[in-house]
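Let us practice reading a record.
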Amino acid sequence: MQFVNVELNPNEQLNSVAGAMAYMTGNMRMEAVMEGGLMSGLKRTLSGSSLFLVKYSPQGGSGVVGLGGKVPGKILDIDVSKGGWIVQKTGYLGSEPSVKLDMAFQKKLTSAFFGGEGFILQKISGQGIAFVAACGDLNVVELRPGEQYKVSTANAVAWEESVSYDIAAAGGIKTSLFGGEGLFVTTLTGPGKIVIQSMTLQDLATALIPYLPTNNRD
């Protein structure tokens, strides 16, 4: 697990999803706000974030706030001033107040049905730095125009808006049935950066099931 450790000077602020704060200095003020009003709050909820965002601001000098993800993994900082990003559901962790969090919809129904992330994704845009959390390790790849990566279902964490997203067949019938990746894989086409995670939350949960305690005394 990684922390986002942010030092804020007077008059600076940081936003995060509810429940992300791991620690903060004693002079840090924490306030739950419905950023953007009720409609924006509902959009955040539908995209896997929280209805209220938490706003941090230091009082009487600089202060520190630490944010953490909910699963073992990595946290990536993204500068959205250079362009918007599409992020997997629940990926957004926090950002500068000048960053906007909104819903994004899959462009094709096949992506929604077979992509592993559902119909609604997150979109982050505006100005400043945003933090994205995901399970496992992260690999950032910059695709050239027309270059493609085929990514296993649900392993695509985020990509720049310039990257097109679609679903393609994993291969022939034998490969689809016995290759372990299902019938479809995510196809990301450049130009732009993409972020791939080494492990998904579903992978982690599946690996832990055999070791969970049961009520069977035998």
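A brief commentary: The radius of gyration is 19 Å.
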